[in-house]
Amino acid sequence: MIKTFLVKKGPNFVKVMLTPIMVAFEKWLAIEYRKVLPKSPIGKAIKYCYDIYHRLSRYHLDGRYRIDNNLAENSLRGLALGRKKTTFLW
After folding, report:
1. Does the CA dihedral 53-28-61-8 come out positive or negative?
2. Which phi and psi angles does 85 have, rounded to 5°?
3. Nearest to 14 by CA among 3, 28, 1
4. What total of structural domains would you count in the chain?
């Protein structure tokens, strides 16, 4: 429902609404990374997210991008299920 609402409002609406959230998230990542041990699981997760933040930020900079890839995954699901079924035919 939220995705449909955002798509109907247009790319500029997404950019205006999500930019402050994404900026705050980037600041949170930087602050929290200093508080945790770098080798701990949460330290590794925060570092990974911070390292690929530029790819995540494309979503709010260009409203044409979707936050999920459900369409791509659903289109491949039939291929994967078909391949699994054929293994039992031999």
Report:
1. positive
2. -65, -35
3. 3
4. 1
- For residue 33, how many C-alpha atoms fall within 13 Å in the half-sphere facing its CB? 15
50, 31 in Cβ contact below 8 A? no
pTM more than 0.70: no
| Residue 73 vs residues 12, 69, 79, 80: alpha-carbon distances, Å | 27, 6, 10, 10
Domain assignment of residue 51, given as a range: 2-87
pLDDT at 59: 75
Helix (H, G, I), strand (E, B) or coil at 84: helix
Which position has the higher pLDDT, 31 or 14? 31
Name the amino acid, one letter, at 5.
F
